Amino acid sequence: MAQRWWRDLPPAAGWFVMATATLSIGLRPIGLEPLSAIGLVLAGGAWLLLAADFALRLLSDRQRWRGAADSPPALTAVAATTVLGAGLALAGWPVAAGAALLLAIAVWPLLLTFVIRHGGARIPGAAFLVCVCTQGIAVLALTLASAERARWLDWVGLVFWCGGVGLAAAAFARFDLRQVWTGRGDQWVAAGALAISALAAAELLGADHWTGGAQQALRVFTLALVALDLIGYVLLLLAEIVRPRPDHDIRRWATVFPLGMTAVAVRAAAVATGVPGLSALGTILLLIAGAAWLYTCGALPGERIRPNRPSSLPSGPRRRNL
């Protein structure tokens, strides 16, 4: 029974790692290091479980692995690795964070190609993971660059940040706007894409390389991305209030991740741009994200997570009815 449970987890289970690691990152700078450490341990344990399942599928059930790899939630393998890696870097584990960066860069092109190749004309919110995983690599590279004074990694971060912005624009052009009203949680990944793009921009702005026009351009980009993220946050929240979706499945962790990432991005932007009012806003948003994490932990155990159940299937671009 235990073996069947962990092997039946869908790729979307990676959203738990992303949400928990993001919250851990956000708690550290506000003086809640013990809670941050607990979150990092939880995220790391879940990541190891999912990594083992990923490897076993690849080695023993190639057809099942390929079927999972073709869907957007498969990209949580990359995104979760990068967010967890950033948390490890901030916690003083640079070797583990560096290994996470290398692993993410190695897996990223493979899964990205699979997902893009099977994309439909209109895509669900989960498809924004093409941006999230790319920007996650940028954030991890930039975090390591700052923590270890490896400034050459700033250029790696810049390349992936530019790529992530381009992928976000492409995803928004094909996003099925009906998902704002009908999505079961993963529609929030659109806001998560903007949030992690803003975080990467803020970290780029904080690097020593950029001066003059380049620095000013990064400041404008950072504030613009934060503004777009907050607008998306409010619109998605209003849609949830107007059209409540009380039934829960594992995709609700895709809601918690953007809530936490928005808080982290807003606080990072406050430091990088010198707009102090953003820091207080980021702290409030972090408390909201923490409450959402606790609520989701309490709500989901009442729902049986079974891959064959329609409500728990990760949405993907091949599901044209979404």
UniProtKB/TrEMBL annotation:
Keyword Zinc present in the record's keywords: the answer is no
Protein location: Membrane
Topology class, membrane: Multi-pass membrane protein
Which one GO biological process term can you cite for this protein? transmembrane transport
Q: Does the keyword Endoplasmic reticulum apply?
A: no
Supply one GO CC term from the record: membrane
- Give the residue spans that cross the bilayer: 12-31, 37-59, 71-90, 96-116, 123-146, 152-175, 187-205, 217-241, 253-272, 278-300
**Keyword annotations for this protein?**
Membrane, Transmembrane, Transmembrane helix
In terms of InterPro entries, this protein maps to: SLAC1/Mae1/Ssu1/TehA, Voltage-dep_anion_channel_sf
Predominantly, its location class is membrane
What is the designated name of this protein? Tellurite resistance protein TehA-like permease
Organism of origin is Nocardia pulmonis
